[in-house]
Amino acid sequence: MADDTHLLFPNLLVDHLQDLVLKTECVKEMLDELAEFSADTLADPAIAFCSITLIQRKKPVTVANSDSSAVRLDETQYSTGDGPCLSAIRHQVVVHVPDLAHEDRWPAFTAAALEAGVGSSLSVPLVLEGEAEAGLNLYSTRSHGFTSEDISMVETYSYHASKALRLAVRISQLVETKAHLIAAMESRTTIDLATGAIMAQNRCGQDTAIKILKIASSTRNVKLRDIAASVVGSISHDPRVRTHFDA
Predict the structure, then answer these.
(1) Which of 120, 173, 202, 234 has the most CB atoms around it within 10 Å of its CB?
(2) Which one-letter DSSP state was computed for residue 97?
């Protein structure tokens, strides 16, 4: 790491992570930025690359990376069920492999890493909430590519990165919940309009009108909202159904 960057750390880190959360539009974009920033900040970008592993429902997946080489090494761990990254996440400890040529805990991963020209690795858990778990993986193309200073720094880094990631996930969940709520309200409005139209046309009650909609939905194998929209469209002679929630 460059000397000036080290002097600014962790202030530089905190400011940049806050910018990532505020400026990126989705968690995936934020994670990609985080992976690239990690590779640039925690090691020489010419010799190191980074990835982020997420485990949900016991299934690991690489959700971000600064280089495709990291993805291939991650997937080797996933296929065998073990490796430095998975160990870091499972045991919530930093896992440092200074020289992969002398590492025998994960034969399949070690062989793949050496074949890819990787000499050392550094894996650190990221603390999330709920059932999800995550880890940051750093790979260097030389042995002893991560100094004791790097290892100490990555512990501080992981703390701030975890907080940023949790905040980004919460924001994403709020946005998604809002979108689902609006969609549900729009759907309910459309169904109510169609129910009223059927009641007027058939001189029937609300329960009967809803039953007619459901039968049509089941018979045609079309979603209830779409059937309702077609009813409203046929009456208004306008295929577009407008609700109070349209932008």
Answers:
(1) 120
(2) E
Starting at the earlier edge strand, list the strands of the sheet with 95-97.
59-65, 48-56, 133-140, 120-126, 95-97
Q: What is the CATH number of the domain that holds 208?
A: 1.10.10.10
161 and 217 co-located in one domain: no
Helix segments in the chain, DSSP class H: 3-8, 11-23, 27-42, 68-80, 84-91, 107-115, 148-202, 206-220, 224-236
In angstroms, the CA 48 to CA 38 distance is: 10
- Whole-model pTM: value is 0.59
Phi and psi at residue 97, in whole multiples of 5°? Answer: -115, 95
The domain spanning residue 33 has which CATH number? 3.30.450.40
Nearest CA among 133, 118, 152, 148 for reference residue 50 = 118
